[in-house]
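Hi C.,

You asked whether I'd gotten around to modeling the 167-residue construct. I have! Everything is below, sequence then structure, no commentary in between.
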Amino acid sequence: MNKGTRIILQAAAMTLILLLGGCGYSVHRHASLPFSQINVGRIDNATLEPKLQDKLYSALAEEFTKQGILVTPEAQLKLTGRITRFDMISLSEKGGVTVEYRVIVEADFSMTDAEGKVRETRHVSSPFIVSFTGTGDLTNLLAARDLAEERAMKDLSEELVGMLIYK
């Protein structure tokens, strides 16, 4: 390898290190996680929107599993939650009918360890805007709304799990 190629490779490597090191991303190993198992307990729904607790429970279980944490009822660490806010805000309308909505979900969580120490995490919401278009017949509107609710729960779960394991 000639000197010019070596300098270019070194510069590229340094640039990559600076980009990855300075952007807030880091690589975490399974062994560095603060816990390896969790019991996702009761999720209460304090809103008028039905079935949100089921969607949030599923999203939390999926996200913990994705991060390498076993979700089991036998775990010493127990997470419980309460969905406190669900809003659908009209973003745009066409001919007097709303055609685009924004979904906002907020929840409070408690994590209890084996000694009974409780850690509260309040007002967790998605860091992303979840919206959907509601055009066409009622069936399409309800299907789009359901998918938007699931996406909002997934985003909320990602936010919470990140807060719990990557302080």
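If it helps when you're writing up: The chain has one domain: 35-165.

Thanks,
B.
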